[in-house]
């Protein structure tokens, strides 16, 4: 595969597919991403969460509804804006997220099978550089470039 962007997209798709097939904790990959974002940034509102996950707000709303019904996410009133609700992980959600550690490590081990430790480290370093460059482009690019 000559195009690096397509290769990254394909790798991301395959990782999601593999992860969803294993479904640790019975959650979908999308639900894991929601839970992870809420644990990392407690107090996000649904709009902010949709932006972080790059999905439509209605999609986030439906996921939050289901996750709230299963006791994973709590909606709390925003003291600054009574129309807004802030999102927080339920008390046992962090324990549930901890269940990702081992399957995640196993997936990375399978993905990097055959690499020596130096190559694995080099790949990790290079991917961090690519991610940083893309984030910098998003921060400093004109709005029309970022939003198409």
Automatic annotation (TrEMBL):
GO terms for molecular function: DNA binding; DNA-binding transcription factor activity. The keyword Protease does not apply. The keyword Transcription regulation applies. Keywords: DNA-binding, Transcription, Transcription regulation. Residues 1-132 form the HTH marR-type domain. InterPro entries: HTH_MarR-typ, MarR/SlyA-like, WH-like_DNA-bd_sf, WH_DNA-bd_sf. One of its GO terms (biological process) is response to stress. This is MarR family transcriptional regulator.
């Amino acid at each position: 595969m000559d195009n690096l962007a397509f290769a990254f997209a394909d790798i991301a798709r395959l990782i999601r597919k593999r992860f969803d097939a294993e479904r640790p904790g019975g959650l979908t990959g999308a639900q894991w991403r929601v839970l992870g974002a809420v644990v990392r940034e407690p107090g996000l509102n649904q709009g902010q969460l949709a932006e972080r996950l790059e999905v439509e707000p209605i999609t986030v709303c439906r996921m939050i509804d289901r996750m709230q019904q299963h006791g994973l996410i709590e909606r709390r009133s925003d003291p600054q804006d009574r129309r807004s609700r802030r999102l927080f992980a339920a008390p046992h959600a962090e324990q549930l997220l901890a269940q990702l550690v081992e399957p995640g490590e196993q997936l990375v081990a399978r993905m990097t099978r055959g690499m020596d430790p130096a190559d694995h480290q080099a790949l990790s370093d290079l991917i961090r550089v690519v991610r940083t460059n893309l984030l910098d482009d998003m921060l400093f690019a004109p709005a029309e470039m970022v939003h198409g």
